[in-house]
Specification:
Blueprint: H1 2-13, H2 20-48, H3 56-89, H4 94-97, H5 100-120, E1 128-131, E2 136-139, H6 143-185, H7 191-226, H8 235-259, H9 262-269, H10 271-279, E3 286-287, E4 296-297
Antiparallel strand pairs: 1-2, 3-4
Helix pairs in contact: 1-2, 1-8, 2-3, 2-5, 2-8, 3-5, 3-6, 3-7, 6-7, 7-8, 9-10
C-alpha cells in the first residue's frame, strides 16, 4: 500500500510524469492503494473478530467499494497499454492523440464505467462481502451475485486482459522493429544522436514491461480467484487463492511501478528529496549535455 501511495504522490507532483501515461499510472496506483487500504482497515480486523450482525450492511458497501477500485485499476491497465502502443507505433502523433483533454476524458470514462458496475450492487441479492468464517471476500449465493461473479468479475475482466495482452504483444513487436531500426542507423548517426535514441528506446521498453507485467499479475489473480479456488480443499488454501492473491496482486502493482521507474525510486528511497519534491511544484530533472551545447533543464 505504501509503495502505491508514495508512487501516486510522486507522479502527480513530479514534472517527468505530467503527461498522459503518468496520470493514468497515477490513477492506477491510487486504485491499488485504495483497495489495500480497504483490506487493512476492514478485512484484517474481521479476520480476527466475528462481524457483528449490525455491520452486515456496512460489509456489503465496503465490498461494493472494493470492486469499484478493482475495475478502475483494471481499466487503467487497458488505457495504459493503448497509450504505450500509440507512443511506440505512432511517436509523432502521440502528443496530438493523448492530450490533457483526452487523458481527462479517459479518467472520467474509467470512473463512470466502474461506478455503473458499482451501482449494480445496491440491488438486493447482488452482494459482495468479506466472509469471516472462511476469511475470504466472496460473492453471494443469489442468482444476481452468481451472474455477476461469472459474467462480469471473471468473464468480462478476463476478456479485458486478453485484449490488453494482445495489445502488449503488438507493442512488443513494434519495439523489436524499433530496435532493429536503431541498430541499422547507428553507423549513419553521430555518437550523441545514437545515445539519445538508445535512451528513448530503453525508456519505452521499461514503460512497456511495467504495463505488461501488471497485466500478467492480474490475469494470474483472476485465474486463482475464480478457477483454482474451486479445486482447493482446505480453508487456508481457499484464503491463499482468493483474499491473499488478490491483495498481493495490487500490492505487486506498486512494487512493479517502482521497479520500472528510476525517478520514483530515487524520490522514495531518499526521503529528504522525496519530501522536498512534494513542496516543489516544478521538480527539475537534469538532461545530459550534448557536445558543444549548454547545460539544459526541463
Amino acid at each position: 500500500m505504501l509503495c502505491n501511495f508514495l508512487s501516486f504522490l510522486v507522479m502527480i507532483r513530479h514534472k517527468t510524469f505530467r503527461n498522459s501515461f503518468g496520470y493514468l499510472t497515477a490513477y492506477h496506483a491510487f486504485s491499488n492503494a485504495a483497495i489495500l487500504l480497504i483490506f487493512t482497515v476492514w478485512a484484517v480486523p474481521w479476520t480476527i473478530l466475528p462481524i457483528p450482525d449490525k455491520l452486515h450492511w456496512a460489509n456489503l458497501r465496503v465490498g461494493q467499494l472494493s470492486l469499484f477500485f478493482v475495475e478502475t485499476a483494471f481499466h487503467c491497465c487497458l488505457c495504459i497499454s493503448i497509450n504505450r502502443f500509440v507512443a511506440i507505433t505512432f511517436p509523432m502523433k502521440y502528443r496530438r492523440i493523448f492530450t490533457n483533454n483526452t487523458t481527462t476524458g479517459l479518467v472520467v470514462f474509467i470512473s463512470v464505467l466502474s461506478a455503473l458496475y458499482w451501482s449494480v450492487y445496491f440491488k438486493s441479492g447482488c452482494d459482495f462481502f468479506f466472509d469471516h468464517s472462511y476469511h475470504v471476500w466472496s460473492f453471494g449465493s443469489d442468482p444476481c451475485s452468481v451472474w455477476l461473479s461469472f459474467h462480469i468479475d471473471m468473464g468480462y475482466n478476463v476478456c479485458l486482459f486478453l485484449v490488453v495482452v494482445l495489445i502488449d504483444i503488438v507493442t512488443l513487436l513494434q519495439l523489436r522493429s524499433m530496435t532493429k531500426s536503431v541498430l541499422a542507423r547507428k553507423t549513419a548517426t553521430d555518437a550523441y544522436q545514437s545515445s539519445d535514441m538508445s535512451r528513448r528506446q530503453r525508456k519505452e521498453l521499461l514503460f512497456f514491461l511495467q504495463a505488461f507485467t501488471n497485466s500478467l499479475v492480474y490475469v494470474f489473480m483472476l485465474i486463482c480467484f475464480h478457477l483454482i479456488s474451486r479445486l482447493v480443499v482446505t480453508d487456508f488454501q481457499l484464503f491463499l487463492c482468493t483474499t491473499f492473491i488478490w491483495g498481493l496482486s495490487h500490492a505487486g502493482g506498486g512494487v512493479i511501478l517502482m521497479a520500472f521507474n528510476p525517478e520514483i525510486r530515487r524520490h522514495v528511497t531518499h526521503l529528504r528529496d522525496f519530501t522536498k519534491s512534494l513542496h516543489d511544484p516544478a521538480t527539475l530533472t537534469n538532461v545530459r549535455k550534448a557536445p558543444g551545447t549548454a547545460s539544459a533543464r526541463i
